[in-house]
Coatomer subunit zeta
Amino acid sequence: LRTPQQTKRTGPGGGEVSGARGGGPGPGQSGANGALPWCQLQEPSLYTVKAVFILDNDGHRLLAKYYDDTFPSLKEQMAFEKNVFNKTSRTDSEIAFFGGMTIVYKNSIDLFLYVVGSSHENELMLMSVLTCLFESLSHVLRKNVEKRWLLENMDGAFLVLDEIVDGGVILESDPQQVIQKVNFRADDGSLSEQSVAQVLQSAKEQIKWSLLK
């Protein structure tokens, strides 16, 4: 039989946490001091993003996607968005901690873009999603990231978001890659060679034919 090896890890507070490989407390069991082992307190997950939404400068929803059941009903989602807007719309910060969640956000003219993660999520990871979303929309909307142009190009905005996040998992954080993938889904060629209207029309036709199949 192999003798369990004694290991030491650094806990969240900087102290050492000892345990034996193969001989530590099992799932749901406490250690000698009654505390759960550090490794059980925070399990890694691919599901980084809880929600992405865009509001206008009155706090009204323009676009939103939720990726878990934290806010299962539309009423709860709208209330959450309103509270987040009230907390963030008059500040110069880019990060907020609200309701046990980490929220990164950006204001552009009359739009507020938000990316929501759990309280222990890496802010830089969430910020990379926000930056990619903004720069991709800026490209699709010809640098007019404002309410009027977003409403006229909502199909393209959803295509962009779907290429960045799927089911809460971050797929892409490079705006150029996102634009290429959006364009590939819409039509052959590149966005720089087609008007936004052409790309969106192609996307609508693909959706129509997929429904008819």
